[in-house]
């Protein structure tokens, strides 16, 4: 899809020379998003699709109107003419582009049923009602598309997936934003959920993280808004509930980005921030409210918001909200929403608790599954490397991984404790842009850190699990599990920060003897994603724990003899001795010859010395000297 525009000397930059590009096209890279797009130096046309042949020079009339170009089924090029654009009413009036007036809902459902029985919507520059399987850009049948993308659906009269962006389903304002963002085709969850949502039906969508689910419910929500003409001061029409403030603000960013040309307003309600600005937004009136359950309940109790106009309700990451204990708050909120509504639930897993609340809150929903929902699976687009290491070796291996990445690559490092998170971030910040995020950070600090990470000012983010769920940052190249999480479910969600929206990614995981109880479950995740399983992990699973690294040191027992290489990764005393391994490999204070592993000097990132003392079992102090 082509749009006109000028090339800014300060914005985009030239991509490396590509001899396969037809003249006079040049590749450009957007400096803000990193997206590759193509510029015709003669016509000044830019587009995201790679040109395959010498283009026909468009007329000045076409250039001035910034028309949307589309290939019809016959292979001809058809444009939306300026006259036809002028005849269309503005989106937001009583008629909607892509929807017919009058009995629009009934007509839309009839069109979807026609498409399901084999009727093809041929695009000839005419807007048709409803959405169905489009052949534009895809030669697959609906069944073949579902099989190829591992989509299974359950429900009555399920419409076929929408396999390409097409102006017979979406208003041109939304299409412009979609193509400007660089999207060429819907993701599987979007392709199947859009036509269902546009029929006004309830949905349970079960898909892995990074599947594009946010737009899966936002875009139908925008179109739903156009069918209603509520007074904004009486309350929102669309309500989205999410488990964390990070996810809530990311949803808001997407809503603003894709809804700005349609003049859709939204606000975000979450804890850890002053209520004043949030209440002012509510008083002014907004179309969409995105909220965490706790803060929304607080404002409901203050009687500062009404949900009586909500007719489009979304529960995003429903499984996570239940894990966090939000079920009572969710039910209380839903009781404030009219029963005559459309409800969409998105979840990464499908345990019995989620099934129960879905049965209670949704009416005759269509269930859309992407992949196998009966067991936890990892994104196959992510290459997983699991390495069995002692804690001492973690630093050295982290250094090697970071050195091997291209400068400026976005990397997320996960730690199990806030203290380790801050310590690693401080050490890394001496040589690369690194910042930490965890639960003790204020909301303003978290927002600042995430903004630095997104813009590339701090390309390395060190985080605890508070950032693992719902964190959606484009182009995260690598995820490193410096500490293994407390379960494989968190592992899957951690590594899911890379390999998003169809991209590939890499995940490195440091696995120790203390993590052996997770070995069997980890093997299932690796095998399910067609990844290599290290022999040491299989050995751990077989013996059920214990093994390679002794927790409290090696042979240096009670008398403090030879400093063992314990779970801490540092030489020194046995657990019950009163002596430590001497610094720089010197003699211990008493006892035998201790190995002072704390003296290791890291040549690149960790130009420091760590002295670690076991004050008592499970209590560690760390001094930088």
UniProtKB/TrEMBL annotation:
Entry EC number(s): 3.6.4.13
Cross-referenced CDD domains: SF2_C_DEAD, WW
SUPFAM superfamilies: P-loop containing nucleoside triphosphate hydrolases, WW domain
Biased composition (Gly residues): 554-595
Domain Helicase ATP-binding: 194-368
Residues covered by the WW domain: 19-53
Any one GO molecular-function label of the UniProt entry: RNA binding
Pfam families from the UniProt entry: DEAD, Helicase_C, WW
Protein family membership: Belongs to the DEAD box helicase family.
Name of the protein this chain belongs to: RNA helicase
Organism whose genome encodes this protein: Trapa natans (Water chestnut)
Organism lineage: Eukaryota, Viridiplantae, Streptophyta, Embryophyta, Tracheophyta
